[in-house]
Amino acid sequence: MADKRHENEKDAQLESFRVDDKGKYMTTNQGLRVSEDELSLTAGVRGPTLMEDFHFREKMTHFDHERIPERVVHARGFAAHGEFQLYESMEQYTKAKIFTDTSNKVPVFVRFSTVNGSKGSGDTARDARGFATKFYTEEGNYDLVANNIPVFFIQDGIKFPDVVHSFKPEPHNDIPQASTAHDNFWDFVANNPENAHMVMWIMSDRAIPRSFRMMEGFGVNTFRFVNAAGEAFFIKFHWKPKLGVHSLVWDEAQKLMGIDPDFHRNDLWDAIERGDYPEYELGVQIVPQEDEFKFDFDLLDATKLIPEEEVPVKIIGKMTLTNNVDNFFAETEQVAFHPGNVVPGIDFTNDPLLQARLFSYIDTQLIRLGGPNFHELPINRPICPFHNNQRDGFHRQAINIARVNYHRNSLQGNTPAPASPEQGGYKHYEEKVDGKKIRGRSKSFIDFFSQAKLFWNSMSEPEKKHIIDAFSFELGKVKSKSVRRQNVDLFANVDLQLAQKIARNIGVKPPTQGGSPVTKTSPALSQLNTTMTAKTRKVAVIISNGFHGNVIKSILDYWKKEGLVVEFISEDLGPVKGTNGVVLEAVQNVYTAQSVLYDAVFMVRGSSTDKMFNEKAAYFIDEAYRHKKTIGAIGEGKKWLEANQMVNKPGVVTDENVTEFARHFVQAVAHHRHWNR
């Protein structure tokens, strides 16, 4: 792996906190060298342990307290360091230096997560994914706290505890873990129709991404850009993965929960370690203030998106993840995000969900990280200096030497002093606000089904089938027939045929009327319209002794140039010998490898007569075929495909010409799945 560490200010800052224990003497936390770490201090070899054993007390006390509360949501996360580079200045829209200075490489830290499950849950549960990015800028930390779905369940943050309570394990038995397939969640869905759009996304393939590297990120809420002249623009943020947006199939996702519950973690870690640095382009949808009411929905409604065909996403920069963390707890677990962490030129709107988030995030960090000084932890610490009159509290690290800790003062010249906007001080956008104090909601928030129908209309036939299957699975787990019926009736407002198909699958009388009149589509919402590339796709090569060495080597050399990642699977781990002195290293065997861990399969085989190997290989190929993956074969491998009637099918590559085979295989892998098979 290319070592890209220390290429920016944040990495240099973190270096002073890194501790390498290798080759060092053991000490207490006070620096006293320890002579024994396996035996407690006792009164004789069979006597009682003595309270004066300070090393035992320190070691055990730290162990007893080394866990912190997990996040209420987004508990299971994984993160990496990287950098952001702006393509073009956005000074026409914002004065934020991060979006105006194209020469600056800004260090970032990104945490991906599932929303529902606990820290110990699996990676591939059906769920929204968090996509939180901390930019360490010279003006302070800026947190873009996003999800991989552009809308949310609710319109007002006061209902956030309710939706989270509903999708968490049911309180009477704490079942099920990391799943919404239970009565409480679907009871909430049926009785809160504003979530219909979000639920359509959750039931889609977007909720089971192939990889963190292959999912979009969305800011969800509407924010503001403010330029140096004080002009404001409404903004929606988008992260677009360079590898495209791709997903697992449900059968894969379920099996991976048992075979490799760390599937997404392993994928991200391994990609960075081998130098396949994940890349995401940052885009913005920009809406002038005067166009606020030109849409058939409300910009402040977090259950709505702006179709990209109406307001194109302007790509403005690229983020590259270049380093894995050094310590999971110190970085991934202790990082604290907050949408209120902004810089001059970025401001908020009156989106009621966003307004609630501005309180909730910092409040939850206070209890999770044990007090108000979590900003001093290395992973949260800004790269720019920070000065204020805040003092003391749990885990204070700064040693403030000034006698003054209040404002205003004369003893130190009234410093630290506020900075004017011209000096870089943050100034809120001067939006006129006038109204009576009420608990109410604008009528422009009332349409709950039009965008849910837009999403449905925009799906391809395979994607629609997957949505129906997902609804059928989830609602099929619901014990209350009343809740099942209520949900069928609810989604009949989206599409009547959708509801009728779900009803038949879950034992509920199909509705006879309903459906939204919306007919328009948004092609950008379908994953089949995303980038298609074979780069970094993982290929299982099933091989045994006796393979044609030169042929296989030429194919593998071509694939390496095209960016495929290959793993060899054989009867046993270790060397696999082919002709012409070619030797390959099998890192998996048929007992440890499963097809769900790979994007494609290349069947080489060889001269193996091992019955178990052949049976396992047969199952491996059959499962990959059913999951619509690319399959390639030559030699003995091709004979196996012929015997099982898999040749001459879409995505099955068996060219006789070696060069053509290698090229066609890469082209097939780039399609990700072959739905017409």
From TrEMBL:
Function: Decomposes hydrogen peroxide into water and oxygen; serves to protect cells from the toxic effects of hydrogen peroxide.
Crosslinked residue numbers (3'-histidyl-3-tyrosine (His-Tyr)): 338-361
SUPFAM superfamilies tied to this protein: Class I glutamine amidotransferase-like (SSF52317), Heme-dependent catalase-like (SSF56634)
Residues reported to bind heme: 71, 111, 160, 357, 361, 368
Family statement: Belongs to the catalase family. HPII subfamily.
Reactions the enzyme catalyzes: 2 H2O2 = O2 + 2 H2O
Official protein name in the record: Catalase
Keyword Metal-binding: yes
Domain of life of the organism encoding this protein: Bacteria
EC class of the enzyme, as a word: oxidoreductase
Active site: 74, 147
The keyword Metal-binding is assigned to this record: yes
InterPro entries in alphabetical order: Catalase, Catalase_AS, Catalase_clade2, Catalase_clade2_helical, Catalase_core, Catalase_haem_BS, Catalase_immune_responsive, Catalase_large_C
Entry keywords, A to Z: Heme, Hydrogen peroxide, Iron, Metal-binding, Oxidoreductase, Peroxidase
Cofactors, names only: heme
Domain called Catalase core: residue spans: 27-415
One GO BP: hydrogen peroxide catabolic process
MF term (GO), any: heme binding
Organism lineage: Bacteria, Bacillati, Bacillota, Bacilli, Bacillales
EC number: 1.11.1.6
A Gene Ontology cellular-component term: cytosol
CDD domains: GATase1_catalase
